[in-house]
């Protein structure tokens, strides 16, 4: 069984991009939200990143799921899995398989902003799990949580946010996001969260500034997106990729540093922007977590952590919390 709801049109996305670019390039310091990395090329580059020797998070999370998915499924005891930011689906299948073995799973609700990608991957899940009711939702899960088809059959729900997607948000919006998730759940429901952990800064920086330069290409790709979508004339080769560990905030920052004094025109916004040599545009934060801090944040949103799993190296965490 398969259906797809579209809560987000191409026009909504275009408006959001215009708003974010206009605000971000006129603020000091300049910044852009990371969600605009992911056009077709950006999504393919991210897939390449997940296979890099330096980028451990995807492998570490997969290892946890390979070892613990049955425990997770037993603890969640859920009728529906709602996955926010559903990605390419390898990890999802480990979870779905375990939940199916557990025996209660009837519904899968993958939610993503990228409609084409979501439709293709959700459709494949529906084919491979013929007894599962697959209800895909195209939406911005930071804003449209209230529109989700939660609890259509009355059973227990699990909401999953994997891949350390949550690390892209600053603490304020992150707290609001966690509260929003809590507000669509009821007692007995659970929240499964994948979160990357604080570790040696050299390893963190290497994970976001790989030797082959794939992450640098991914970072610069946001400029290609703005060129194409908003008629801008960025020359991506005039920007260097920078990854830096912010010790105080405990997050990785990715930045694009202008190599020269330059002037950029964003035609569709009627906007001209100057970059001085060495000036940096922040393109992403990727927050890293500690168990105590995460418990506190979850608690602040009304969740009680019940399970905590890491990979054998202690690099990445999966936690299950009760609503
Ligand atoms: C998809 C947001 C989890 O923060 O590690 C990877 C994105 N950026 N390399 C991350 C990313 C650079 C990734 N997330």
Automatic annotation (TrEMBL):
Domain Histidine-specific methyltransferase SAM-dependent: from-to ranges: 18-321
Enzyme Commission number, as recorded: 2.1.1.44
Ligand binding (L-histidine): 55, 168, 208, 284-286
One record GO biological process: methylation
Keyword set includes Transferase: yes
Pathway membership: Amino-acid biosynthesis; ergothioneine biosynthesis
Entry function: Catalyzes the SAM-dependent triple methylation of the alpha-amino group of histidine to form hercynine, a step in the biosynthesis pathway of ergothioneine.
Entry's family note: Belongs to the methyltransferase superfamily. EgtD family.
Name of the protein: Histidine N-alpha-methyltransferase
Source organism: Nocardiopsis lambiniae
């Amino acid at each position: 069984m398969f259906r797809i709801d579209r809560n987000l049109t191409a026009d909504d996305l275009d408006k959001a991009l215009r708003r974010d670019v206009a605000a971000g390039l006129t603020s000091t310091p300049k910044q852009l939200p990371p969600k605009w990395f992911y056009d077709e090329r950006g999504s393919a580059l991210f897939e390449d990143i997940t296979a890099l020797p330096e980028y451990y998070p995807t492998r570490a999370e997969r290892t946890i799921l390979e070892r613990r998915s049955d425990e997770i499924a037993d603890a969640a005891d859920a009728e529906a899995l709602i996955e926010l930011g559903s990605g390419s689906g390898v990890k999802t299948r480990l979870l779905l398989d375990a939940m199916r073995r557990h025996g209660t799973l009837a519904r899968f609700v993958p939610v993503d902003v990228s409609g084409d990608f979501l439709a293709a991957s959700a459709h494949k899940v529906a084919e491979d799990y013929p007894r599962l009711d697959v209800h895909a939702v195209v939406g911005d899960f930071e804003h449209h949580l209230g529109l989700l088809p939660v609890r259509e059959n009355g059973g227990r729900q699990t909401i999953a946010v994997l891949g350390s997607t949550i690390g892209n948000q600053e603490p304020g919006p992150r707290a609001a996001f966690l509260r929003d998730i809590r507000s669509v759940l009821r007692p007995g429901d659970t929240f499964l969260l994948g979160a990357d952990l604080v570790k040696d800064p050299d390893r963190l920086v290497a994970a976001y500034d790989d030797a082959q330069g794939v992450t640098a290409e991914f970072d610069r790709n946001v400029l290609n997106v703005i060129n194409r979508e908003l008629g801008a004339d960025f020359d991506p080769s005039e920007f260097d990729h920078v990854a830096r560990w912010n010790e105080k905030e405990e997050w990785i920052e990715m930045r694009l540093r202008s190599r020269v004094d330059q002037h950029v025109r964003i035609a569709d916004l009627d906007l001209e922007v100057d970059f001085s040599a060495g000036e940096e545009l922040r393109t992403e934060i990727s927050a890293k977590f500690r168990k105590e801090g995460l418990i506190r944040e979850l608690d602040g949103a009304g969740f009680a952590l019940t399970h905590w799993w890491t990979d054998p190296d202690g690099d990445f965490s999966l936690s299950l919390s009760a609503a």
